Amino acid sequence: MFTSLSDRLTATFKNLRGKGRLTESDVNSTIRDIRLALLDADVALPVVKQFTAGVRERALGAEVSQALNPAQQVVKIVNDELVSILGGETRTIQYAKNPPTVIMLAGLQGAGKTTLAGKLAYWLKDQGHTPILVAADLQRPNAVTQLEVVGERAGVPVFAPERGNIGGHDAVGPTGEGTRSFGDPIAVSRAGIEQARQKQHDVVIVDTAGRLAVDADLMQQAANIRAAIQPDEVLFVIDAMIGQAAVETAQAFQEGVDFTGVVLSKLDGDARGGAALSVASITGRPIMFASTGENVKDFEVFHPDRMASRILDMGDVLTLIEQAERAFDRSQAEEMQRKFLAEEDFTFDDFLSQMAALKKMGGLKSMLGMMPGMGQMKAQLDNLDPKEFDRIEAMVRSMTPFERTHSKQINGSRRARIAKGSGVQVSEVNALLERFTEAQKMMKQLARGGGIPGMPGMPG
Ligand code: GDP
């Protein structure tokens, strides 16, 4: 997602590199490029206009920074504006003072609501809550079963209408749905919330019905449920792949159910994604979460600032750290913590396994950016080609076990041997050793200074 937008913007910024001063025509042509990139990415026209106007005003204004060169200034301005159209501050669930907090899900059929229900429940559980899922999507009998499967995967209970009642006394829903509906979603939602109260679940997630296209009945039903259960949050789930229709759909749901937040689903897809980017700006509602796959863990809190830097390819270090948290298992984390506390213990083998773990998680640049000691090298690394990692790996593999644990003893002849063994110049081995020493130092500092925020099992 967003790769082509990202590539386009990066290319635009490249043209500015090396300019000592930005003229009005530099600014104009940059803005023209940005505008085209956004439109090609399906960003809605009013949002594009607002965006480019903001960038132009600031780029031509008095914002001259001594610390940044002109290209960097433009990147910073574009980044700030991007953060702002994505909703500014990060916002997640606001919990009710008196539990249970009730979260209602709304969206088109196929948007990913049911899948999201499981992910959200799993995430809430991970945050120490005791969620329960309520199956109020009674349009499709399958939806209830699907929610039960999802709940099982997330390890969270599901409240569903008794199957005996299907087609029974509730055969006509509140919207006069008649035979297509097999229960009253309002009654089920209320009963679910009551159950949560009795069994001390502090969050209730109510999954409601969707249809293939926005229609008045669906909206009325959702509005009726909203009015009846007074949820604390109404999350509108939208498929990031649906293109320009996103804006219209979001507006219809805003009018219909007045949602409090947005969840972008299928962000793992390769759609252009711009329409999804328009939703926060058009509706004025924050994007709270992103759904990024079919697995229950493929779910993230949406951070406008991090998403902006991801789009601008500035390395999404914080998200990577969070992912690292999940990817590292506990024993590995404890081992790392131990090593963090003792500089000498951090060996080339750790260095390699860290790199391998991080390589799994994302692009090389952002990966190295978050490695201890590598952060400061970001500028140099910006021009790094991906083969660099392979070369580093080859060099470490050419070291003996003794050398991997005693880096200070790698003298000239050992360096020459390592270089020969891995097919690189001695200068590259020197550079690696320098880098490694930096990393060790950084480890020590981090251990003293309280650790990397968010790293697993790390102090602090
Ligand atoms: P609902 O009708 O809104 O409840 O949508 P579902 O939860 O049933 O999802 C519709 C389809 O999209 C299913 O095949 C899901 O597996 C798939 N899906 C949901 N979320 C994601 C996601 O984040 N990424 C991908 N790749 N697929 C998803």
Automatic annotation (TrEMBL):
Transmembrane segments: none annotated. PROSITE patterns: SRP54 (PS00300). Coiled coil: none annotated. InterPro entries: AAA+_ATPase, P-loop_NTPase, Signal_recog_part_SRP54_M_sf, Signal_recog_particl_SRP54_hlx, Signal_recog_particle_SRP54_M, SRP, SRP54, SRP54_GTPase_dom. Keywords: Cytoplasm, GTP-binding, Hydrolase, Nucleotide-binding, Ribonucleoprotein, RNA-binding, Signal recognition particle. Residues 286-299 form the SRP54-type proteins GTP-binding domain. GO terms for molecular function: 7S RNA binding; GTP binding; GTPase activity. GO terms for biological process: SRP-dependent cotranslational protein targeting to membrane. Composed of three domains: the N-terminal N domain, which is responsible for interactions with the ribosome, the central G domain, which binds GTP, and the C-terminal M domain, which binds the RNA and the signal sequence of the RNC. Belongs to the GTP-binding SRP family. SRP54 subfamily. PANTHER family: SIGNAL RECOGNITION PARTICLE 54K PROTEIN SRP54, SIGNAL RECOGNITION PARTICLE SUBUNIT SRP54. This is Signal recognition particle protein. It comes from Knoellia koreensis.
